[in-house]
Amino acid sequence: MTKALPVLETERLRLEPPSLAILDAEKRFWASDRATFAGGRMTGPQVWRYLALQRGHWDLLGYGMFSVVEKQSGAPVGLIGLWGPEPWPEPELAYNIYEGSSGKGYAEEAARAVMGWNFGALGRERLISVIHPDNLPSQRLAARLGGAPTGEQFTPNPDADPVDIWRYCAPEGRS
Amino acid sequence: MSVSIPVLETQRLILRGPEPGDYPDFKATFSSYRSRFMGGPLNAYEAWMLYAAEIGHWDIRGFGMWMIHDRESDRTLGMAGGWFPAKWPERELAWIIWPEVAGRGIALEATHACRKHFYETLGWDGAVSYVDPKNLDSIRLAERLGAKRDLEAASVDGHDLCYRHPSPAALRSGQISDGIEMEIANYIDPLFTPKGMPVD
């Protein structure tokens, strides 16, 4: 567990491995309506475990979610990255944006950095997002990023609704 | 990850950090009835999330649950170590042994080594174990480790029992440790082995 985790940078944002530094921001997210399409609300102790498992996700799979912070202020913006726990069919581009950080183009900016990392440094050739059929803002972002619904669905958790699988195209020059 | 997980060795066991390849064994027990006192049985999604959280716990707290391996075969036998997620009143010494290898004193040998590491290397001044009142095997193990029911202490959810482990000083004084070590020795090389078939 000694390998260094990657840090990505964009013009306005820094993407770093999640830590307890964002515990309060995550607690607010998971106590709000924004949690509805991300798996449902969670209590404080559940959010602590969620952050712990984010670290374990990196360790088990070699990729994971990044904590996105505003470079200038250091303010947390959200959690964006590659998410692929069991029983996901393949790793997905996932994004949870905190209240007050939407509408600035941050999600798209960070998501493009993650896509570049996925198709670049990680050398992966595929990328999906799994999106709840009612989550229109998320679908709009996926479409802006070049994604399209595949018509397939999957059920992440037996207790949850089935979600739509969207797929992004690899950049030109890759199959 | 920022912490490297120490390896603990005992006579029969090697305790290492949980690794990706150990996950199927973890999932097998946590999706079975065996895990009913540890929040289970879990579905695939929940089991994976818990396993990732066990690993992240090491990273956040600097200690956590080890995977117990048989020294000879290297197969996994269960997990033991420290557990202190949010909402836990105190640092816990915790364990789970895969059902097919229960009854061989593995949990005793593993937890005894973990507790020693926490006391002597990490400088803990004590530890507790939170046990479901119906989990008689774990209550018995807590007692064999010298832990005593603490009626004053807070529990995790108001339902579980808090067992308080002997302090580092009490453990050093000999009698409890000697008893544990004698019991472990007896598992390894029984003082009494029946010769031939019993006739009655």
TrEMBL record, chain A:
InterPro entries: Acyl_CoA_acyltransferase, GNAT_dom, N-acetyltransferase. It comes from the Bacteria. Keywords: Transferase. GO terms for molecular function: acyltransferase activity, transferring groups other than amino-acyl groups. Residues 11-172 form the N-acetyltransferase domain. The keyword Transferase applies. SUPFAM superfamilies: Acyl-CoA N-acyltransferases (Nat) (SSF55729). Pfam families: Acetyltransf_3. PANTHER family: GNAT FAMILY, PUTATIVE (AFU_ORTHOLOGUE AFUA_3G00765)-RELATED-RELATED, N-ACETYLTRANSFERASE DOMAIN-CONTAINING PROTEIN. This is Protein N-acetyltransferase, RimJ/RimL family. It comes from Poseidonocella sedimentorum. The lineage of its organism: Bacteria, Pseudomonadati, Pseudomonadota, Alphaproteobacteria, Rhodobacterales.
UniProtKB/TrEMBL annotation, chain B:
It holds the Pfam family Acetyltransf_3. The keyword Transcription regulation does not apply. Keywords: Transferase. InterPro entries: Acyl_CoA_acyltransferase, GNAT_dom, N-acetyltransferase. The keyword Transferase applies. GO terms for molecular function: acyltransferase activity, transferring groups other than amino-acyl groups. Residues 12-148 form the N-acetyltransferase domain. Signal peptide: none annotated. PANTHER family: GNAT FAMILY, PUTATIVE (AFU_ORTHOLOGUE AFUA_3G00765)-RELATED-RELATED, N-ACETYLTRANSFERASE DOMAIN-CONTAINING PROTEIN. This is Protein N-acetyltransferase, RimJ/RimL family. It comes from Poseidonocella sedimentorum.
